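Re: the request from the purification team.
They wanted to know what the chain is likely to look like in 3D before they choose a buffer screen. I agreed to run a prediction and write the result into the notebook, where they can find it.
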Amino acid sequence: MIKTFRAPFRQRIFNALLRLLTSIGIPLGPFYLLTVRGRKTGKSYTLPVVIIAWNGKRWLVSPYGAVSWVQNARAAGEITLTHGRTHERLSIREVSSEESAPILKDYVTRFPIVRRYFDATPQSELATFVSEASRHPVFQLMEQAGSRTQPQKKEAECILPRLREVELGP
């Protein structure tokens, strides 16, 4: 039987540390900060997630089921991702069970820590992941025009490359 998700204390501490480091501009591997608007309150909620690239597209997987952020994202239809100092506002599309099966299989293979929340194993057939898909929503991430923002460079950072070009020029 699969476990239902309740974040243990150590994971809540880890999530807080990830939020802190990412918010000051330090990108940490595959971790992004997901910000989504609450469906009832309109308040923004932020939590760490892992984004995977598969088949030339980016995907957001909820290994813990239809938790609050999933319901909020469904209602909003868009999310904001932060990685280091880069922010992206993205549209989302929840995919069908058949479309999400290979993505879920890849996710379970890459991230063994979430396997206890799945009945399927990395060796399972895709049909097993099709049946799992209703319990583990998968969203395709789609860029919106002008959605990526990066911090402005300080004036000194802008001038130094030009000075080097002058010094190193022919």
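For the purification team: The beta strands are 31-37, 44-54, 57-61, 78-83, 86-94, 138-149.
Please add any questions underneath this entry.
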